[in-house]
Design brief:
Elements: E1 2-7, H1 11-15, H2 18-27, E2 32-37, E3 53-56, H3 66-81, E4 87-90, H4 95-103, E5 108-112, H5 120-123, E6 128-130, H6 139-144, H7 162-174, E7 183-187, H8 199-210, E8 215-218, H9 224-236, E9 242-243, H10 250-259, E10 262-266, H11 269-276, E11 281-284, H12 290-293, E12 314-316, E13 319-322, H13 343-346, H14 350-363
Parallel strand pairs: 1-2, 1-4, 2-3, 4-5, 5-6, 7-8, 7-10, 8-9, 10-11, 11-13
Antiparallel strand pairs: 12-13
Length: 380
């Protein structure tokens, strides 16, 4: 059987498609599985043990004329159709994926339909449609709903090469890591700035971990704003940190994360990468739901979500999420009233965060008792 899975979303979304792919392999061990994703996200699935091929949507090249790009798109679409898939699974509700599903010529074309405002022409492009299940439901399980009842493999896999691990270690060594101190990764940034915490808060957590003998490593994407945020955190702290902001590819970032004993950060793709490699996560959430986008504990066997409440501090071993319990959280908006600023994160204090950091450091055998234990009275 020739299977095509389409995910036209961002890095974290692509990574969390993994359990669907593993489940398809489990149920159809002799199938050929191809995944179609946006350019720039393919690193999340290359090397996946249950994927045969990863292809990307075409993007316009620098200096490429409109006509030349249209011709290349047409050739790409023809190549997609020549794959002749028996089954196509479109995992999102956007138009791009639905159109690609139809153009592929798949015999069975399976996807979600929108609960409201679905366009009439979309319904004819799919042979089997499903309404998304309501209520609290994690994204991993939402993807798995496409294949219905049956055996499932609920593990998220992320692979990197020896060369990726080698460069990550070389950068660590060059920055002063002795190879012995336990590594704690802090990833303070998201492509959406309204998901970020304060410089003061991140620097406080970095200092707290460093006081216990951990080597703190700051990471970000190559985005100039994220790099500047990491630099500000490094400068604001009182303990030395290694700042690798903007220096790592996605695969190298995965290799570095795999060396770490703890990941601390915000709701972003690297947080999902850490969870995929079973690195304990403490993640801060603002407008987003933890029930659908929380760090996935590999192999979780329940239904609904490993984070069953709408907000607050929650654990699904080995991961924790921290979120205000305000009635407006999560709002699902781009900051308060669409302002691009989130009070639920800006007003989150160190006093609310450090006791949990201490708890996880103790659990992971990283607590040395250096300095004062965190207390709820600590000034944020």
């Amino acid at each position: 059987m020739n299977i095509l899975v389409i995910k036209s979303r961002h890095i974290g979304d692509v990574l969390l498609t993994g359990p669907l792919l593993s489940t398809l392999r489990l149920r159809h061990p002799d199938s050929h599985i191809t995944v179609l994703v946006k350019a720039g996200t393919e690193a999340m699935l290359t090397g996946h043990p249950h994927v045969d091929a990863v292809i990307t949507f075409p993007v316009r090249r620098p200096g490429e004329g409109r006509v030349a790009f249209l011709i290349r798109q047409w050739l790409w679409l023809r190549g997609l159709r020549q794959r002749r898939p028996d089954r196509v699974f479109n995992t999102t509700e956007g138009d791009r994926g639905v159109i690609a599903t139809f153009v592929s010529g798949g015999v069975q074309r399976i996807g979600f339909r929108r609960q409201r405002g679905d366009k009439w022409w979309r319904r004819g492009l799919l042979t089997h449609t499903l309404l998304p299940r309501g209520g609290i439901r994690h994204t991993v399980l939402h993807n798995l709903d496409l294949v219905g009842e049956g055996p499932q493999d609920r593990h998220v896999h992320l692979r990197f090469a020896a060369a990726d691990a080698g460069r990550a270690e070389r950068l660590l060594r060059e920055a002063g890591w002795d190879g012995e101190r336990p590594l704690v990764q802090i990833h303070p940034a998201s492509r959406w700035r309204f998901k970020c915490w304060t410089v003061h808060g991140m620097a406080g957590v970095a200092d707290f971990c460093a006081q216990q003998g951990c080597q703190v490593v700051l990471t970000t994407s190559p985005d100039a704003g994220e790099i500047a945020l990491a630099a500000a955190i490094a400068q604001a702290g009182h303990q030395p940190v290694i700042n690798l902001g903007g220096l790592l590819t996605l695969k190298e970032l995965a290799a570095l994360t795999a060396r770490c004993r703890l990941f601390f950060g915000v709701d972003t793709a690297p947080m999902h990468m850490a969870a995929a490699m079973d690195v304990p996560v403490i993640a801060l959430y603002g407008p987003s739901g933890t029930y659908d986008w929380g760090p996935w504990p590999n192999g979780w066997a329940g239904d609904g979500s490993p984070f069953g409440r709408l907000n607050g501090v929650q654990e699904s071993f080995p991961h924790w999420v921290i979120q205000k319990t305000w009635s407006c959280v999560p709002c699902g908006r781009a900051g308060c009233e669409g302002s691009k600023r989130s009070r639920c994160l800006e007003e989150l204090t160190l006093a609310e965060v450090l006791p949990l950091v201490e708890q996880v450091l103790r659990r992971e055998g990283l607590w040395q008792g250096t300095g004062e234990p965190a207390t709820r009275e600590q000034d944020g």
